[in-house]
C-alpha cells in the first residue's frame, strides 16, 4: 500500500484500489484521479448510454420504461414497428393515455406497397413479410384514429432506402437506434441506446434524420392508396 501511495505512476488493479480506499476511508478520486477520469466518458460518446449486439437483446423493460416516462414525444420511426405491439402489453391503452395527456405520438412507416418494401421482402425471404409487419402497425393505428396527438405517415418513395436501413425510436431525450445489417431482420440487428446531452451530438444527428424523412412523408389517413 505504501508503495502505491508513494509513487503516483503505480496504479493497482481496480479491486485493490477499492480495498485501499475502504481501508483509508477516502474516495478513489483523491488518490488515483487519473484512473477515474479514464473510466468516465468525456467525449461525444457520452451520449451512448448502452449498446446491444442484437435489438432482441435489449430488455423489453427498457422499451416499457422509455415509453412510460416520455412526457412530450414518442416518435417510432421504424420501417414497420410491428414488434412493439407484440412485445409491449396494453400498448394501445398506454399510447391513448399519453396522447390524451398531451404527449405527441408519431409513427413513420414504410409504404407496404412500394418498391423498397418489395425488394426487402425478396432479400429477407421470410414468412412474416415486411408488408405484413407494416400492416400489423396499420391495424393497431386504426384503433387510435379517434385519438388526438397521434400522427402517422408513410415515408416518401425516395426516402425508402434510407428509412428501411435505419430505425430510430425517440422518447423525449432518449432514443433507441438500430442500423439494419445486410440481410438481417430487425431483431437480429444491433441497437444503441442514446441519451441526449449536447447540441449537434449523436442524438441530435439521428433525430434530425427522422425529422427530415417525416417532413417529406404522406399522411397515412389521407393517402389515396390507403384511405
Care to give the gist of this entry?
The protein is α+β, with helices and mostly antiparallel strands. It has helices spanning 2-6, 14-24, 28-31, 33-38, 60-69, 82-87, 91-100, 115-124, 130-142, 160-164, 202-215; strands spanning 48-52, 73-77, 104-109, 150-154, 166-171, 174-179, 191-195, 218-219.
Strand order of the largest sheet: 1-7-6-5-2-3-4-8
* Strand and helix order: HHHHEHEHHEHHEHEEEHE
Number of distinct helices: 11
General shape: elongated
What is the radius of gyration?
Answer: 22 Å
Major β-sheet annotation: 8 strands, mixed
Low-confidence runs of at least 5 consecutive residues: 222-227
How much of the sequence is in beta strands? 15-25%
Distance between the termini: 75 Å
Query: What number is the mean pLDDT?
Result: 86
Which labels suit this protein?
227 residues, alpha+beta, eight-stranded mixed β-sheet, 11 helices, disordered C terminus
What does this structure look like?
The protein is an alpha+beta fold. It contains 11 helices and 8 strands. It has an 8-stranded mixed sheet with strand order 1-7-6-5-2-3-4-8, with helices on both faces. Strand 5 and strand 6 form a beta hairpin. The longest helix has 14 residues. The chain is elongated. The C terminus is likely disordered.
Amino acid at each position: 500500500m505504501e508503495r502505491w501511495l508513494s509513487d503516483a505512476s503505480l496504479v493497482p488493479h481496480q479491486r485493490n484500489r477499492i480495498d485501499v480506499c475502504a481501508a483509508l476511508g477516502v474516495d478513489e478520486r483523491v488518490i488515483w484521479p487519473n484512473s477515474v477520469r479514464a473510466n468516465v466518458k468525456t467525449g461525444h460518446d457520452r451520449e451512448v448510454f448502452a449498446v446491444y449486439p442484437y435489438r432482441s437483446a435489449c430488455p423489453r423493460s427498457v422499451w416499457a420504461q422509455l415509453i412510460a416516462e416520455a412526457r412530450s414525444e414518442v416518435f417510432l420511426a421504424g420501417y414497420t414497428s410491428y414488434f412493439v405491439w407484440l412485445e409491449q402489453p396494453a400498448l394501445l391503452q398506454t399510447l391513448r393515455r399519453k396522447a390524451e395527456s398531451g404527449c405527441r405520438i408519431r409513427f413513420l412507416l414504410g409504404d407496404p406497397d412500394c418498391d423498397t418494401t418489395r425488394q426487402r421482402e425478396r432479400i429477407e425471404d421470410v414468412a412474416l413479410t415486411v408488408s405484413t409487419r407494416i400492416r400489423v402497425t396499420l391495424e393497431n393505428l386504426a384503433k387510435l384514429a379517434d385519438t388526438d396527438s397521434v400522427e402517422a405517415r408513410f415515408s416518401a418513395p425516395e426516402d425508402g432506402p434510407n428509412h428501411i436501413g435505419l430505425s430510430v425510436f425517440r422518447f423525449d431525450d432518449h432514443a433507441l437506434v438500430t442500423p439494419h445489417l445486410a440481410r438481417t431482420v430487425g431483431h437480429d440487428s444491433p441497437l444503441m441506446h442514446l441519451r441526449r446531452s449536447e447540441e449537434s451530438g449523436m442524438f441530435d444527428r439521428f433525430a434530425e434524420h427522422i425529422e427530415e424523412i417525416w417532413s417529406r412523408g404522406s399522411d397515412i389517413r389521407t393517402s389515396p392508396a390507403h384511405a
